[in-house]
Structure formats: structure tokens, C-alpha cells
Amino acid sequence: MFSTAFLDLPPLQSAAGTVALPGSKSISNRVLLLSALCEGTTVVHDLLDSDDTRVMLQALRQLGCGVEVQANTVQITGLGGRVQQQAPIAFFMGNAGTAMRPLTAALAVLGGDFTLSGVARMHERPIGDLVDALRLLGCDVDYLGQEGYPPLRIGKPTLQLQAPIRVRGDVSSQFLTALLMALPLVAKDQDITIEVVGELISKPYIDITLNLLARYGIAVRSSGAGAFVIPKGSHYRSPGSIHVEADASSASYFIGLGAITLGAGIRIEGVGAASIQGDIRFVEAAQAMGAVVDQGPNWLHISRGHWPLRAIHGDFNHIPDAAMTLAVMALYADGPSELRNIASWRVKETDRIAAMATELRKLGAEVEEGPDWLRVHPLPADGWKAATIHTYDDHRVAMCFSLAAFNPARVPVRIEDPKCVAKTFPDYFEALFAVAQTAPDAIPVLCVDGPTASGKGTLASQLAAHLGYHFLDSGALYRITAYAALQAGLKLDEAHADAIATLAGRLAIRFDGDKVWLGSEDISEAIRTEQAGMNASAVSALAPVRAALVDLQHSFRKLPGLVADGRDMGTVIFPQATLKVFLTASAACRAQRRYKQLISKGISATLDTLCADLEARDARDTQRAVAPLKPAQDAQLLDNSELTVESSVNLVLDWWQSKQPF
User: Fold this and answer.
1) Is 296 left (phi over 0), alpha (psi -120 to 50) or beta?
2) All structural domains of the chain with their residue ranges
3) Contacts with 74 (C-beta within 8 Å, 6 or more apart), sequence order
4) Which residues are catalytically annotated?
5) What confidence tens digit (pLDDT) does each residue in 135-152 have?
């Protein structure tokens, strides 16, 4: 998962491949709570691992549920419809509406001494209609802050179950879902009726709830008049095991991707025609815009059909989350598109109507908005602007705007706070980059070159972490090659150059944080000795070896970008790099740093010897016939002799930013 402050998406051209989606957030959190309310043990397979599900799991642990997590399978030992509370419990619900609302209702009917709070945005998301319904039921629920909003305090109820329970349906379907999940706990001796006041929005999400309740033994009766009846004698029964289908809302981004890009199309696995999620109807909207869709019970295949996309006009109350993707797809349409009946956008993780309008305008689009509608005009090829997309800590804003990187103007898009996708799809950008394609020269490269012990590896790795880019330690490649050659009994000289080159072409090298792997062997320590550095210099002087490693180094240039450090990254390997930095610290300064490092590790050394060794190595590297050590003509020279690593990183990031269009 990307944890950087921003993520720059370079211009992307096409997409093809297969995407395995994570589990549905809506289904995952419903299943977790239902399993907790049962007696006995339920094994939940393919559970979504995200911020929202972690919030729910932590709440269940606090209630005393048994929770055993192994990968994406979770075993829940339920409460049997009772809470054995020994002390007050304070729940922190983050910004997880699918956890906050149902848990509030369940705790309110069970009774106890509970408080529920969340992040600042959660305290701006209305919950008053649910609280009103619970209070009419006889539940003890108080506001601890602003009336109608979390945080909440819950006490012991005095339940009144005879009259129908009325709840508004036109703000959030989660209020009705919360009551439907909570009331079977107290439907012992009589039917309990819930009446929905006003239009029921997002009805497909209620269908998910009803489907899952049936799986847990609760057969809710419903009528077209907006009444739902929980039969007396209702009792939660564990299904034993249950599988969470993939998230149909998350599928919308890849459905949109297949619709707007050339290529063999996108295959989506884990959700399809048999889905119980309402957002699967996004497929119909994509088809209306021109996408070609093939589908099976649990898979979809999407490819581009009509181009440009057809403008779309419709009521999208039934797919409010997925409809956000349509707003970005509308930029590629043949006329203005209008999304209507989407008032629920305004009470989601952010005011999504305002957010989408603001960010679409940054790209150059003309956008009109109303209380419950959004009209988006398409962008001509020359009308796109490079833009920094503010994501409002809203996962869906971040994901749907990634589709703007496929624009015909070939301008990049910056996504702020990319880690917000962890709410539902932690590996979204990795999944996107696995299927996205672009010309190699469109993938940005930042080169950091310099002599031995100049700190280029530390600087480059931290730059890569700040930018969310891949990292290439080219010096490690030579160290690894020398290590592998010696292990194979080869001498590091001209006589064995061809054999070493052949060996180098077959090396399976992987960088994983601070670890360096050769096949299944962790060789991190073995290649970081002084001798390993000398060996690397020896093999780097062998022309056949250098030629063999060029292709390997080029293969590290992957989306979204690369930071490469070495001695010839900017001059030989990536001569067209966006930014080239050459470190110029003196041998004396570098020797002092190396001396401190060695002494801290308990290794004896002398400054004079280290300085002489570095000067000798500099002489060899600068005078070798093949790719001698020297700055590229357009390199930025950086004397980091007196700079901290942090200062050097910030300086280079400033240089990098000066080359960006944002």
C-alpha cells in the first residue's frame, strides 16, 4: 500500500490483464457483526482486510468475541445475543459507517455502558434518524457532542416493541440496515415491524442485508409499501462458514478502465452476474456508455466498444458509490452526462457532490452541480490539464480519479493521500499498475549518481519512499553478480568476463525494503562488506558484465516510477531521466562517515586508510574505459558534505517538484 503524501500517475496509454478484487466492505462488516451476534463459531472466508474491517474486528474483541485472524480468513466465536459487560467500553470507529451504524443499533437494544466515537469526519456524518428510531424503541442513546451526530453514549434500554418502528430512508440506507440487524436480538415473543418514512435510497444495499440475514436464519418479510417485519422467535444461527464475495463497488474502477482503454481488455475475478450486491448494476451503466461486457457467475471481462463513450443520463440512487466512477468516465464521453438522485453523496466520507465537482474542474472540465445531481461536460483532447487531486480522506475519490491518467493529452495526475484507499482496497494502486501500460519513456526516473560512500544509496532509497517509486541499487547488482560469480568458482577478471556475464543474465534479484534476495537466499549482509564493494568495482569494469546488466537495470523501470542510484545511471543507463543528481562529497568527508559507521559496528578502522582506499577507488572508477564515473552534463551537483540526509532529501524533492507540471 502506498503511504506517501501524494502519488504521481504518469500518462497511461492502455490496460490489459486480470484483477482479483478484495472482498466487499459492505458484506464483510455485516458478516462480522452477524457472526458476533450468533452463538457458536463462524468461519469467514475472503474477508476484506481494510481500515473499516479492522475497526469492526477491534470492536468485536472489545465486546468479548473470540477473533482469530489468518490471512483473509477469520474465525469469530459469537456472543449468543448477549453482552457480558464488566466495565464501560469506549469504541473508536474511525470513519467506518458500515461499522458505526449497525454496531450502534445492536448495542442499543442489548444495553450496557458504551461510548462510540470516530474521526472528525465521522462526527459530521448524520446519525440522528437512527437514534430517533432507537429512542422510540425505548433505547437509551445520548449525544456527547452536536445533536444528531456522533459521538454517542449508550445505556440500558426499556424496550417498547408493540408499535411499528419508523425510520427515515432518504438519508442513508445504513440506518435501516442497522435496525434490521439489531432487532432480531429482541424479537422473542412478537413480530417487530419497521416502517420506512420517505423514499428508501440505496435499496440494493438493503437487499444485501436481507440476503445475509437469511443466511443467518432471519427470514425478514417485506412489502412494497416500505414495511419490514422481523418474525417473532427470531434467533441468529451461524451458517458455520461463509464466503465474502468481491467488492462490486471496487469493480467499477476496472470496469471503467476497460471501457476507456485500448487493449485486450480487463478480466475481473471475484464478482459477476451472480453477485448479491446492487453495485453490480454498474455494468449496465458501463454498457450504456459503450463498454463491451462478457460475464459469468463470478467474473467480468470488459473491453472498449463505442468510442468516444456515450454520454449518460440517469437516476443513480441504486448505485451511489459506483456512480462516482461514471463522473470521471463522463470526461471521455461524446456529450454532457448527468447523474441524478445522488443526494446521499453529500453525507458520505465527504460531500462527494462538491468534491467531485471541484476536482473535475481542476482537470479542465465544465461541471454543474445541484442538491442531488451532477452534470459533467466531456473534455476535448487538448482541454485536459495536469492536476493535483485532493482526496478528502475519501477512498472512492482517490480511486475513481486514477482513470484520468489515461487522458489523450498525456498529462500526469497527482493523487494526494493515496493511502486513503486502505478503507476498502489497500492494494488498489498496485492492482492498477499491474494492468496499466505506457511507453517506457513515460515512466519517470530520478537518478542519483556518485562515488563510493557518498550516501547515494541512503538518499535514493528515501527519495523512492517519499515518491512511492521503485528503487534500484545498481551497485547492489554488481555486488550480487560478484557474489554469485565467486560462489560459482569464477575469478573476477577479464578471462572470466563472458562466463560472469552469462551468469548475471540469469540472476533472480529482488529488493524488499532493506533486504536483498538472490533467489530464495537473503544476501543482504553478505554483499554489504568492504570486500564486497571492492569486488563490485572489479566486475563493473568488465564490459560483457556491464552489457548483461543493462537490460536487468532497465527492467526496474516500472509504474509509477523509479529512483535509481549508482555510478552511471544518468550517463549510460537512463540518459533521458527526468532528474539527475550527482553527489560530490570529498573523499575525506566520505572516509569520516565510513569511519563512524565501522566504529559503531565494532569494526576497527583508521581514517587515513579509509581515505586512501576511497581515493584509489575513485581513481579507478573515473578512469575506467567503460562508463567512467562522471556527472551527466545536465546533472544537478549536490555537495552533501555538510548536509543531513533529511536536508539532502528535501533539496532533491524540491528539484524534482520544479520539473513537475502541478
Assistant:
1) beta
2) 6-22+246-438, 25-243, 439-469+560-662, 476-557
3) 32, 43, 44, 47, 57, 67, 68
4) 321
5) 999 999 999 999 999 999
